[in-house]
Amino acid sequence: MPLDLSTIRAQFPALCKPVIFLDNPGGTQIAQTAIDRMNAYLVENNANHGGAFRTSRESDAVLDEARAALADFFNAARPEEIVFGNNMTSLTFTLSRAIARTWDTGDEIVVTRLDHDANITPWVMAAQDRGCTVRWVDFHPEDGTLDLGAFSKALEGRPKLVAVGYASNALGTINPVAKIIQMAHEAGAWVYVDAVQYAPHGPIDVQALDCDFLVASSYKFFGPHAGALYGRYELLDELTAYKVRPAPDDPPDKFETGTQNHEGIAGMLGAVEYLEWVGKTFGGDYLEKYGERYQGRRLHLKQAMADIRAYEYELSRALLDVLEETPGVTIYGLTDRRRLDERVPTVSFTLKGWHPRQVAEELDKQDVYVWDGNYYALAVTECLGLEDNGGLVRVGPVHYNTLKEIHRFGEALERSAQAYSR
Questions:
Q1: First to last CA, the chain
Q2: Distance separating alpha carbons of residues 30 and 36, to the nearest angstrom
Q3: Predicted local confidence at residue 246, as pLDDT
Q4: Which portions of the chain are predicted below pLDDT 70?
Q5: What pLDDT shows up at residue 351?
Q6: pLDDT of residue 421
Q7: Considering only the top CATH level, what class is 33-273?
């Protein structure tokens, strides 16, 4: 059944404010279940890891439950394939250092200019440390899609690793990651997928993708500021982790250095539980599609994300409509309504005569929250020739946003554009 927006919005305490949250690509609002999990952890189970006493045992049980939940969210083969960390960036620096130990001088890696810098610079720095060559893959500026011809060319050097985003946090493009992974594996490369921008918008199945690593941050999918990484178990097991000596040698513990953000991990569990509720409540139409491949929570999560994806097509269409109807707006990325399945509803634009920060400030005066700048997708704004001009304005609805809010955003932007023309 379609999402009931009043019921959905009631799960997010922040949405009672008289503002429009379209800043979601930088971080969504948090679900009540995640807040409840964090509060319960801090009040009832707050303790360090591995103690002989009750609260430590209960703390470890919550973290184990969270690991199992994230394994379900990603459809990992086992909970031990989930590594927790502060965020995607920190996890990527940790894994890049471990993976780079397997590289030799003269080896090659591949990165793309469509990615967030957190999936570029850690690998470039690691390559520099090991004397490796970095191959860059460009994107098509006219529609924001990755240049697969250039990607195929980059694979001719038989790279050790390919780093690629599931979806662009700047232009909203969904990359054909399954095809990219297959091509990379045929060339002998491991694949590291940044799924941060995609995670709140569609179902993820690391086994179906056959990726080697995939990472996301829960504050982008209705949880707290924390991150989780999937790694193929045999690869996590063989890699050397940079850790202190008493720490375990088995994954995932060997990569989780120091004391983790336990309350944040509990909140991640709550975020997954929220999405499980969405699937149970609204995802009945997708039982036939997913029922043979998934069971239990994994089924409900796939139903939830499919229902969310279907509703967000409406949001994408409405958002593109209001932007195209606003004089002076230039949209960057896919706008073809027949290709909405190739993008998430993250849309970036410029407004003629306005610096992006001015647009964001003007919209803030009207209680509409959007981002401006490069959002750490520095290679994107550089390739588009926009970095020196303040980058872009980014609008990113998620499933708790309404079509009415999209139209109110359009009206606010129109007022700003008219003010300039006068």
A1: 47
A2: 11
A3: 86
A4: 420-422
A5: 97
A6: 54
A7: alpha beta
